Structures are given as C-alpha cells and as structure tokens.
C-alpha cells in the first residue's frame, strides 16, 4: 500500500528533513507541500538539495489543502500546529513536529509556552522507557503522534535507563548541551547569524527557562519504576543549559546524576545495556568510548558513552544525535513506521556522513 502525505512547513529545516527521509520511503507518496510566506514558490528554491522533489510547488497551509491525505506532518513553529490539528479530525494519521501536543500538563504549557493548550498525543520516541516497557508499544496503531523536542529526547534517552532501574537519583540532574543553530529553525534571528556564532560558544535559556525542561521531566517521570503509583514531575529536578556552537546540526549532551546508594558499577552499566542492547538506533558505546556529533550526521542514531565518577558519586552520560534526524524528522518517520505496522527502520539509516 502507498500512503499519500502532506508536509506543512516544508520550506523550513524540520520540514525539509522530513521530506528528505520520506523521499526514500517506498511506501510513501509525497503529494502536497505547504508553507506560509513562501507559498506559491517551487519547493526546490527553498530545499535545493531535494532534487527528486523539484516538481513540487509550495501551497498555502490551510486545513483544506492538508486534508484528504493518509498522513499529515506538521513542521510548524511552536503554538501554530493546534489550529490545524483541531481541523484535521478526519485525517487518518497526523504527526506534529512542534510542541503543541507534547505536554500533558496545562500548567507546564502555560509556564513555558503560553497560548492555547492542546491535549497531549502519543510521544514519538520509540526507545524511551515508559512504565516498564518501551514507548514503541504505545505507538503501534497510534493516529496522533507528537514528535519530540530534539534536546528533550536526547536528555531523556540519556537518563531514562538509570531512572527506570533506580540506579541514579533523578532529583539532582545536570545537563549541558552543545547544539547547532538549525535546532532554532530557519527564521532570521540576529543571534543566529554566522557572524554571531562563528568562533564562539553562546549559552542561552540559562537558569531553568528552556522550553524543553518540562518535556524532559515528563519523560523521566514516566520512566520511573513508581510512575504508576503517582511519581510526579516534582520528583525530577534538572539544571539544563544549552550552548549554541558553530556547527550547522548536531547535539552533544553531557548529563549527570548522583549514584543511588548501594549500587555497583556493574549494575549501573547493565541498566543502560539492558535498555538499549537490542535497539537499532540507540547505541551504548563500549566502556571508555564517547561519541562525537560528526559520527551521527545524517543518521537516525543516538550514540552514548557512559562514565562512572565515584569521586563525585555521579553517573555521566554523553550522547550525540543529529538534531534534525533522530532529534526530529527521524523520530517522526520512525514513529510513523511503527504506527502503520511497517518495518521500523524503513527509509532510515544508522550510517552517518563523514568526514
């Protein structure tokens, strides 16, 4: 069976990456691409690397144009998806790459985003531990999927095994991320100009203000072994500091948390090995090895290295992802495959681009 697809926000980074992956998918026909200010222009003018899609023209983003497809991807700025999802009730499968349907807590949405709150959809991180099983079980047959925030899924995947196994204390998590500016989207912003980011590292959203913090807390609370008995987000405390560095794409997240009392080194490493040992797209590297962002460019992989610092009594996890693939578009396509009953890795690769 071939599924017809519409992609909104197709002139942006996330929309372009969704299109790049779907263009190689044997079960997908990309029928419609939409935009706002760029509507009426050839897609190839905004995504010149997508040569196989040169025949497509960007149309207006309206519910009428998006409807009538088997699958609709929404790659819109935060706060803009909800107006379309409300009008796409008849669409068989809708996948939102924005934040509008990620958070279950209205209070968290109001505190970090504001505007109209929309219900949470099935979270699109298949490998994430939730209530003792993998999130992919919840994605099977799902018809509404919220693709993750790239920083949020990277940190959540980094620490969920330790939370689920009870080998770390999630009340004192510290995460620092080196991130590429493509994660901020394609709109022109002074702080993202080449002259502002080349040759420097720029911290932002310092002091607990980053919008991905409630998403991380929500994911890690769901991974807790006591999640079903009411473990709340208040049990997950995280100091989260992202830093823009001069690479177009990529995230290198260094996350740490205290070691739980009485836990051995073998038990700590086994928690991550048990969680990801059989996974295709999340790999725990051998002891003493740590990833580089260069190793994941273009791939749907999350590579992580784990260290145990007994002097500081902390576990440190270093994880590298391509923010536009595993962090966004790859997670969306992987979740789509699961929802439709297709092979999970179809149109996705574990191989990066080097040098």
Note down, in words, how this protein is organized:
- By secondary structure, the protein is α/β, with parallel strands linked by helices.
- It contains 11 helices and 16 strands.
- It has helices at residues 13-22, 43-46, 63-66, 82-85, 106-112, 136-139, 150-165, 194-197, 213-223, 265-276, 325-340; strands at 3-8, 28-35, 58-60, 71-74, 93-96, 122-123, 129-130, 133-134, 144-146, 173-179, 202-203, 238-244, 251-258, 282-284, 302-309, 314-321.
- The strands form 3 sheets. A 7-stranded parallel sheet has the order 3-2-1-4-5-9-6, with helices on one face.
- The longest helix is centred in the middle third of the chain and has 16 residues, at 150-165.
- The mean pLDDT is 95.
Principal-axis shape equals globular
Terminal CA distance reads 37 Å
Low-confidence segments, given as residue ranges, are none
Q: What fraction, in percent, of the residue positions are helical?
A: 25-40%
Largest sheet: 7 strands, parallel
Compute the average pLDDT.
95
Instruction: Write the H/E string, N to C.
Output: EHEHEHEHEHEEEHEHEHEHEEHEEEH
What is Rg?
20 Å
The number of E-state strands comes to 16
Structural class, from secondary structure content?
alpha/beta
Spatial strand arrangement across the major sheet: 3-2-1-4-5-9-6
Number of helices: 11
Beta-strand percentage range: 15-25%
Describe, in short, the structure shown.
With 355 residues, this protein is of the alpha/beta class.
């Amino acid at each position: 069976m071939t599924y017809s697809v519409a992609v909104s926000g197709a002139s942006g980074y996330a929309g372009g990456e969704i299109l790049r992956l779907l263009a190689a998918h044997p079960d997908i026909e990309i029928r419609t691409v939409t935009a706002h200010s760029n509507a009426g222009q050839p897609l190839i003018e905004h995504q010149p690397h997508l040569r196989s899609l040169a025949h497509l023209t960007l149309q207006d983003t309206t519910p009428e144009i998006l409807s009538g497809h088997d699958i609709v991807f929404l790659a819109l700025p935060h706060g803009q998806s909800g107006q379309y999802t409300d009008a796409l009730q008849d669409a068989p499968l809708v996948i939102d790459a924005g934040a509008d349907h990620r958070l279950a807590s209205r209070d968290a949405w109001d505190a970090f985003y504001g505007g109209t709150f929309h219900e949470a959809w099935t979270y699109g991180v298949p490998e994430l531990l939730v209530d003792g099983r993998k999130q992919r079980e919840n994605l099977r047959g799902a018809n509404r999927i919220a693709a993750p925030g790239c920083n949020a899924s990277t940190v959540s995947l980094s620490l969920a095994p330790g939370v689920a196994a009870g080998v770390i204390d999630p009340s004192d998590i510290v995460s620092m991320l080196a991130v590429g500016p493509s994660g901020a989207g394609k709109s022109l912003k002074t702080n993202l100009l080449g002259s502002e980011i080349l040759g420097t590292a720029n911290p932002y959203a310092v002091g607990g203000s980053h919008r991905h913090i409630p998403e991380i807390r929500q994911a890690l609370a769901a991974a807790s072994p006591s999640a079903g008995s009411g473990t709340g987000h208040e049990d997950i405390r995280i100091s989260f500091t992202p830093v823009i560095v001069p690479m177009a794409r990529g995230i290198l997240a260094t996350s740490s948390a205290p070691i739980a009392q009485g836990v051995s080194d073998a038990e700590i490493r086994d928690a991550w090995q048990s969680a990801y040992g059989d996974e295709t797209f999340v790999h725990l590297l051998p002891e003493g090895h740590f990833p580089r962002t260069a190793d994941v460019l273009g791939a749907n992989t999350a590579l992580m290295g784990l260290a145990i610092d007994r002097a500081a009594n902390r576990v440190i996890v270093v994880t590298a992802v391509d923010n536009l693939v595993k962090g966004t578009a790859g997670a969306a396509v992987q979740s789509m495959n699961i929802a439709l009953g297709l092979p999970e890795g179809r149109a996705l690769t574990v191989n990066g681009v080097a040098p």
